[in-house]
From TrEMBL, chain B:
Species of the source: Caulobacter vibrioides (strain NA1000 / CB15N)
Protein name per UniProt: Pyruvate dehydrogenase E1 component subunit alpha
Lineage: Bacteria, Pseudomonadati, Pseudomonadota, Alphaproteobacteria, Caulobacterales
Stored InterPro entries: DH_E1, PDH_E1_Alpha_Subunit, Pyrv_DH_E1_asu_subgrp-y, THDP-binding
Pfam families, per database record: E1_dh
GO terms classed as biological process: pyruvate decarboxylation to acetyl-CoA
Keywords: Oxidoreductase, Pyruvate, Thiamine pyrophosphate
Length: 445, 343
């Protein structure tokens, strides 16, 4: 099974176009594979006779690098290694290993008043985001989506799948590759009373548009004495994907979290992705909505209820514990939950606080947890200096100093641009091991 | 027919105006009053700045009055206006209360932004004025977004996005041009070419100084207009507006104009000669120009005295209000950062 996108960990072997005994040559299309983003044709890279098809058509969740077919005369590994993908995100490299450490997805391990008692269904983060937009667009004609590849291509990450079909090109607008321009136009439309959702293919590209996000959207309500509002959502994947290099791998939570006038959201699971995106769309203020590419394909239980909305500005305790508080957001919540499981084996009960909203930050929930555990570790994918963890530690030092039994620690990306090499990338990013180590350190263990 | 020069665009040839741009004596008098109000207002603002009542940046519109007034005479209710930081003239032309504009300049509670915006950041939805933007060129993308909203709502309104010759070199202007023409958005781009981007003459900053041609590669028609002649502005504005309102997409008007004062209050304007400025003042002044037209229409200097007195009264009242309006209450510090209610 070839890796056909930077984040592909497994795929569905949708169809074989050859059968055992067929003679193939390099370049022949031999199979169709559904990745997390698209259905791709796979071309042979070697020539020979198909001796055996090892993974039948229709097989789902076939891990990358699984042997799917063998050529005659070759003992092993004659399967097509990689193909020329027809669909790819702009300037992202083609094939890549799965994320360092493999998929990390842990679920909440105690009673959750938000969800308990409600019927549940399984849904990916990707579809949760899609459903949130679709539901809000059905509810309010002022809501529309604009961005690169959101319409005809169905979304670079398929988050806007089938929205064009339902809402048409008036409300699902493909833009040219022109972030500065279309972000400004989105803000202008918001000033005129519409409620745009501006998708950035990644938040890295929004660097071109940051002037409009901050100077035009965040500040204008204040500068106009309350007259001009910008009810607009800027959204897209944030943080490090996998092996896409420094320019495509940055966590902007701290950057936007610094700005009054903006709300900043970074959900972890599908329920929050959906509920918070719906809340963001309804919010009358400009909202920066930070998704995570590595989470798009993850399935979670989500309440199967009409109009699932999660309030902005409320953190969530995802695991209760009495020995140390781990505060995280976005993908790092999964890492923190995994670390809590590891810590439990060593007799340390970690409490995991999922921030969910970066701004306004729910300091009360963090403080309550620290009052109980007296120890604090923050986890973020971004750099440490002037970061989200730095802000949390400053607040806890200011308002919870007497409750601390150890200096808080921050787990962050190492203070370097994110490297490409697999081993260096893994060294640079936060990991379960790093979180466990930090948690033990604040527990003096 | 006023002096204009048209850009060659392969699509959307500049139309002969179907709008009646005829101007009678009453309308001429109104233009005169509106332009004089801007000039006297700006002169007083300069004075208040010198007295320390206005702080920070203050960019005066003196010399460019015919543009805001001429264009305003074409717009309809619901149309939007958006510009950069040299915005006092557009606000007055749009019909904003001179007292609120002046009080914003002095940073008082009675200012249109409660004193929290200042010279560059005023807004008034009622008159369609969407700012007042301090980042050079940002208003062009925002104004194109206002046009996107008009198109989305199919409401027949046009957005007027003003920029200077300096802003016209910004990248986002061309990103906006591209999308505006691609989606046929109802926007008129008004480039106020006053010859200097702060202290840099256009020849030193622009490889193509004929800004009305800047839309050619996007198939946007454009024309050069004598921005010192309010009637020429009005006629060109009518053509551009007709084009945009009828669904044919954006239109570019390059207004050749001149600012008499420095870029801002702290600019001694050493980059140009006194003779150059005097030459424009004596031969091309927009207010002298309309006075000549009024004279031809039979209006005498004596007839104008009533208008002059009225303008003087309005400006004096605005200055008095701006001086006496209290500073914003300290409790305003934390208001208007976020809106509360979800919708």
């Amino acid at each position: 099974m070839p890796a056909l996108s930077p984040t592909m960990e497994e795929g569905t072997l949708a169809k074989w176009l050859v059968k055992e005994g067929d003679t193939i040559k390099a370049g022949d299309v031999i199979a169709e594979i559904e990745t997390d983003k698209a259905t791709m044709e796979v071309e042979a890279v070697d020539e020979g006779v198909i001796e055996a098809i090892l993974v039948p058509a229709g097989s789902e969740n076939v891990k990358v690098n699984t042997l799917i077919a063998r050529l005659k005369g070759e003992g092993e590994a004659a399967a097509p290694a990689a193909a020329a993908p027809a669909a790819e995100v702009a300037s992202a490299p083609v094939a890549a290993a799965p994320a360092a450490g493999g998929p990390i997805s842990a679920v909440s391990t105690f009673a959750d008043p938000e969800i308990d008692g409600k019927p549940l269904k399984k849904i990916t983060v990707r579809d949760a985001l899609r459903d949130a937009m679709a539901e809000e667009m059905r509810r309010d004609d002022r809501v529309f989506l604009m961005g690169e590849e959101v319409a005809q291509y169905q979304g670079a990450y398929k988050v806007s799948r089938e929205l064009l079909q339902e809402f048409g090109d008036r409300r699902v607008i493909d833009t040219p590759i022109t972030e500065h321009g279309f972000a400004g136009m989105g803000v202008g439309a918001a000033m005129a009373g519409l409620k745009p959702i501006v998708e950035f293919m990644t938040w890295n590209f929004a660097m071109q548009a940051i002037d409009h996000i901050i100077n035009s959207a965040a500040k204008t309500l204040y500068m106009s004495g309350g007259q001009i509002k910008s009810s607009i959502v800027f959204r897209g994947p944030n943080g490090a994907a996998s092996r896409v290099g420094a320019q495509h791998s940055q966590d902007y939570a701290a950057w936007y979290g610094n700005v009054p006038g903006l709300k900043v959201i970074a959900p972890y699971d599908a329920a929050d992705a959906k509920g918070l995106l719906k809340a963001a769309i309804r919010d009358p203020n400009p909202v920066v909505f930070l998704e995570h590419e590595m989470m798009y394909g993850h399935e979670f239980d989500i309440p199967d209820v009409e109009d699932w909305v999660v309030p902005i500005g409320k953190a969530k305790v995802r695991r209760q514990g009495s020995d140390v508080t781990l505060v995280a957001y976005s993908r790092m919540v999964g890492f923190a939950l995994k670390a809590a499981e590891e810590l439990e084996k060593e007799g340390i009960a970690a409490e995991v606080v999922d921030l969910r909203t970066i701004r306004p930050m729910d300091h009360a929930t963090i403080l309550e947890s620290v009052k109980k555990t007296n120890r604090l570790v923050t986890v973020e994918e971004g750099w440490g200096p002037m970061g989200v963890g730095a802000e949390i530690v400053a607040r806890i030092t200011e308002f919870g100093f007497d409750y601390l039994d150890a200096p808080p620690l921050r787990v962050c990306q190492e203070d370097v641009p994110l490297p490409y090499a697999a081993n260096l990338e893994a060294l640079s990013l936060p990991s379960v091991e790093k979180i466990v180590k930090a948690a033990k350190a604040v527990c003096y263990r | 027919m006023a002096r204009t020069r048209k850009a060659e665009a392969s699509e959307g040839k500049a139309p002969e105006t179907g709008v009646n741009a005829f101007v009678g004596k009453d309308e001429l008098l109104k233009f005169y009053q509106d332009m004089l109000l801007i000039r006297r207002f700006e002169e007083r603002a300069g004075q208040l700045y010198g007295m320390g009542l206005i702080g920070g940046f203050c960019h005066l519109y003196i010399g460019q009055e015919a543009i805001a007034v001429g264009m305003q005479s074409i717009s309809q209710k619901g149309d939007q206006i958006i510009t950069g930081y040299r915005d006092h003239g557009h606000m007055l032309a749009a019909g904003m209360d001179p007292r609120e504009v002046m009080a914003e300049l002095t940073g008082r509670a009675g200012g249109s932004s409660k004193g929290k915006g200042g010279s560059m950041h005023m807004f008034d939805i009622a008159t369609g004025f969407y700012g007042g933007h301090g980042i050079v060129g940002a208003q062009v993308a925002l104004g194109t977004g206002l046009a996107l909203a008009n198109s989305y709502r199919n409401n027949g309104n046009v957005s007027y996005a003003y920029m200077g010759d300096g802003a016209a070199n910004q990248g986002q202007v061309y990103e906006s041009f591209n999308m505006a023409q691609l989606w046929k958005l109802p926007v008129v781009y008004v480039i106020e070419n006053n010859q200097y981007a702060m202290g840099t003459a256009v020849e030193r900053a622009a490889s193509e100084t004929a800004f009305h041609k800047r839309g050619v590669s996007f198939r946007i028609p454009g024309e050069e207009v004598d921005g010192m002649d309010v009637i020429a502005v009005r006629e060109a504005g009518a053509r551009a507006t007709e084009h945009a309102r009828s669904g044919q997409g954006p239109y570019i008007l390059e207004m050749k104009t001149y600012r008499y004062r420095g870029h801002s209050m702290s600019d001694p304007a050493k980059y140009r000669t006194k003779e150059e400025v005097d030459e424009v003042k004596t031969t091309r002044d927009p207010i002298d120009h309309i006075k000549e037209r009024l004279a031809k229409a039979g209006v005498t200097e004596d007839d104008l005295k009533g208008v002059d007195a009225e303008v003087k009264r309005i400006v004096a009242e605005a200055a008095e209000f701006a001086r006496t309006s209290p500073e914003p209450d300290p409790s305003e510090l934390y208001t208007d950062v976020y809106l509360e209610a979800a919708e």
